[in-house]
Amino acid sequence: MKIAVIPGDGIGSEITKQGKKVLRTVAHKYKFDLEYEDVLLGGSALDEKGTPLPEETIRICQNSEAVLLGAVGGPKWDHFPGNLRPEAGLLGIRKALGVFANLRPAILFPELKSASNLKDEVLGKGLDIMIVRELLGGAYFGEKNTVNIKGGQKAWDTISYSSFEIDRITRKSFEIARKRNKKLTLVDKSNVLESSKLWRKIVGKISREYSDVEVSCMYVDNAAMQLIRDPAQFDVILTENMFGDILSDEASMLTGSLGMLPSASVRGDSFGLYEPVHGSAPDIAGCNKANPIGTIMSAAMMLKYSFNRADIAENIKNAVSEVLSGGYRTPDIAVKNSKIVGTEEMGDLICKKI
Ligand code: NAD
Fold first, then answer.
1. What is the pLDDT of residues 267-320, one digit of tens each?
2. Ordered structural domains, the chain, with CATH
């Protein structure tokens, strides 16, 4: 396994350290070679190289089989212009690697039911949703500008999608739904947005090729409400970039904490970029308080999607589950009587269980 590791900023280095530890542990157990190289991105790259996305980072990631990423950003770099901000590095690396589909599973570990913000009766038997977010289009990449006008300023961002961009992620989502509970919900705002109308048209057309998958459409405002009211109704949610960004953070709280959720950003081949859904959490950086499980589960997704080792991914998931069953918690998921542990110790406990 040849992977690139991007610690990034804030808690990034603390959590990717645990991800690497888990990968080393499974490499030893399952007897495969693991080679990794740390590269710079975001604020730390800006400090050292004067750019949030150094050429060297792109080259090393492109020459790897997969990338493990922590998070970027922080108040230290907030005053920089848009093209120099750490987030520009993040959007840039996703674009350079061509990873257009962001898979964000929201799974509730039964042990964490009490950490979820939802009542027991709403959570029912548990939660297993896959949010498929388009990652390279929409408002984050569309034409944008700020201009001076009489008496003030005017700013705009454009949501733009081509049929090609919608087609490729829709097919990916149907393939994923086929391997799950065969239900796909397109989340959009087609009552007001032109781009959403195109999404509906293309998803409707492609759905005829996947007649075994039940398709429905839902407006994003309703979806935000339904996720809280009755999350079990969802299997696969397909949505555009910005809606997916927001809904997946919402879904994370159903699972107990933002720190729990992994993600995989993939394209047509086995390559993938794997990262937790949360940000660099500057408020707890360097305190050994960050929950590393989102990153560790991202490493598990890497083994499943890029290296075709669903068995090892399952081993990691079971190890996480057992550690949680033992009552161990980082502060963000702690409840009464939890054994509170730090980032480092949580990583060690999971490795021990593996
Ligand atoms: P955030 O996700 O960093 O933090 C939100 C809250 O969740 C904070 O209270 C934080 O302490 C907590 N939290 C996040 N991850 C946690 C973890 N693993 N364990 C325990 N608690 C955790 O979001 P924010 O505060 O809005 O943004 C902070 C910075 O991160 C900003 O610069 C933002 O641009 C950046 N950001 C980066 C990414 C990314 O790299 N993918 C994503 C979102 C935000």
1. 988 999 999 989 999 999 999 999 999 999 999 999 999 999 999 999 999 999
2. 1-100+261-354 (3.40.718.10), 117-254 (3.40.718.10)
Q: What is the CA(59)–ligand 1 centre distance, in A?
A: 27
Q: What is the pLDDT of residues 199-240, one digit of tens each?
A: 999 999 999 999 999 999 999 999 999 999 999 999 999 999
Dmax over CA atoms of the chain, in Å, equals: 67
What pTM did the predictor assign? 0.91
In 100-214, alpha helices (H): 120-123, 163-178, 194-207
Q: Is 87 in the pocket of ligand 1 (CB under 6 A)?
A: yes
How many CB atoms lie under 10 A from the CB of residue 308? 11
The dihedral through the CA atoms of 315, 319, 320, 321 has a sign that is positive
Strands 328-329 and 339-340: parallel
φ/ψ of residue 256, rounded to 5 = 120, -50
Was 217 annotated as part of a binding site?
no
Is residue 281 lining ligand 1, measured as CB closer than 6 Å?
Answer: yes
